[in-house]
Automatic annotation (TrEMBL):
Cited InterPro entries: MFS, MFS_dom, MFS_trans_sf, MFS_Transporters
Protein name, UniProt field: Putative MFS family arabinose efflux permease
Main location: membrane
Biased composition (Polar residues): 402-412
Major facilitator superfamily (MFS) profile domain boundaries: 12-385
Residue ranges with Low complexity bias: 386-397
Alphabetic keyword roster: Cell membrane, Membrane, Transmembrane, Transmembrane helix, Transport
Transmembrane segments: 12-33, 45-64, 84-110, 162-184, 209-230, 242-264, 271-289, 295-312, 333-355, 361-379
GO cellular component: plasma membrane
Membrane-related topology note: Multi-pass membrane protein
Length: 412
């Protein structure tokens, strides 16, 4: 039944997901950026850190602005342009002088960040409302499958020649751009239905998205403690870094195997309830770390947190797409994308400081914040804040739409 549903997806969408797998498997350059800058370019750890921070700033800007570009010029055009721009920055990184590395890193983050909301919007607008969670989950599955391949491949390439890491990243991104351009249908007509007012007026009329985005920022910050401070916790408990790596790898495998079928199973349940349960599971996992800070406790915690992640991430992504007025799906996806990576900046800074001064308080407080976020989402729903109307009922066909279509366009 599950595989039959995958077979029923539009052919172009399945091609895009194959492209995501290939692109994610080759997404090596920025995983190894600081190591490359220190070992191959002779930078100090501090200089490499500043360059990585510049990449992070660009990433946030790209996530925020990429959806506007997609809404203005077409999701297909925006997705291809961001992939090609990423190729250019990958090729430039090994060639530019040291003084320009931070600038190239910032531009790379901008391009990479811009691609994410537009790809999410492409998937969301391709499917009817009842299948959007499933489509988002399948898209995440393709990316996660690639990520299980990429880091070991990058390590092998780096040991031989670090510049090959950037070459492989550029080639796989070029393949992704070619797939989007070749297979994603270009709509011949842009929907004439426009929302009243701009983005912020639309958000003001429907506060469900604001509530959800605020809770996502909180939960993403506490969720990413498994990357920011859990390694420190396990190190202090005498656990090797290899064991931590195995835990994270197992988590990725579980997501690849289970997330999309779970989305299919839960597609009929209210989105805010599924998201809130996911938040609670993240909180429970963090609480386990707080009371059982050893490898066995971390293993159980990762299992519970991964279950929460599989519930809230694809559901929240689809929920925001459902809430978007006509012509704004790219911008709404940008807002969610930016909120969902906020923990990349907040988690290390906040978590590291708390762990240094009050290590025993970090994970219990993080757990409590996740539960509070879930409560805020459910309370908002009961008050009518968390019940957006689905404004788009779109399903993209496998072939380009006809002149009379009222579907959202992939290409303006």
């Amino acid at each position: 039944m599950y595989w039959r549903r995958i077979a029923d997806l539009p052919a172009w969408l399945k091609a895009v997901m194959v492209g995501q797998l290939v692109s994610s498997a080759g997404a090596l350059a920025w995983i190894y950026l600081t190591l490359y800058l220190v070992e191959d370019r002779g930078m100090s750890a501090q200089q490499a850190g500043f360059a990585a921070a510049a990449y992070g700033v660009g990433l946030l800007g790209g996530n925020l602005g990429g959806g506007w570009f997609g809404d203005r010029f077409g999701l297909r055009t925006a997705a291809v342009a961001s992939q090609l721009a990423w190729v250019v920055t990958c090729c430039a990184m090994p060639l530019v002088p040291g003084a320009w590395i931070a600038v190239v890193a910032a531009l790379a983050g901008l391009c990479g960040g811009a691609s994410r909301p537009n790809l999410s919007a492409l998937v969301a607008t391709a499917l009817p409302a009842e299948r959007r969670r499933e489509g988002i989950a399948l898209s995440r599955t393709a990316s996660n499958a690639g990520f299980t391949i990429g880091p070991p491949l990058g390590g092998l390439l780096a040991a031989y020649n670090f510049s090959l890491v950037f070459v492989v990243d550029a080639v796989t991104s070029l393949i992704m751009a070619a797939i989007i351009w070749r297979f994603v249908p270009a709509a011949r007509r842009t929907s004439t239905v426009r929302s009243d007012g701009g983005l912020w007026q639309a958000l003001g009329r429907d506060r469900t998205v604001l509530v959800l985005l605020a809770t996502i920022v909180v939960v993403d910050t506490v969720y990413r403690q498994i990357f920011a401070t859990m390694p420190l916790l396990l190190r202090d408990a005498g656990t090797s870094a290899v064991a931590y790596g195995v835990l994270i790898g197992i988590s990725s495998v579980v997501i690849v195997v289970c997330e999309a079928p779970l989305a299919v199973r839960l597609r009929g349940h209210r989105a805010t309830l599924v998201i809130a349960i996911g938040f609670v599971l993240v909180g429970v996992g963090l609480a386990i770390l707080g009371v059982w800070p050893v490898l066995a406790g971390a293993t159980l915690a990762i299992v519970v947190i991964t279950a929460g992640e599989m519930l809230y991430k694809p559901t929240a992504t689809a929920h925001v797409a459902d809430a978007a007025p006509e012509g704004m799906v790219g911008r709404y996806s940008s807002l969610y994308a930016a909120a969902s990576i906020s923990g990349m900046f907040l988690a290390p800074a906040i978590g590291g400081s708390v762990y240094q001064h009050a290590p025993h308080a970090l994970f219990p407080v993080a757990a409590a914040l996740a539960v509070v976020a879930a409560a805020a989402l459910l309370i908002g729903r009961r008050r009518g804040v968390g019940r957006p109307q689905v404004r788009r009922q779109a399903a993209a066909p496998a072939d380009p739409p006809s002149e009379s279509t009222t579907q959202p366009s992939y290409e303006s």
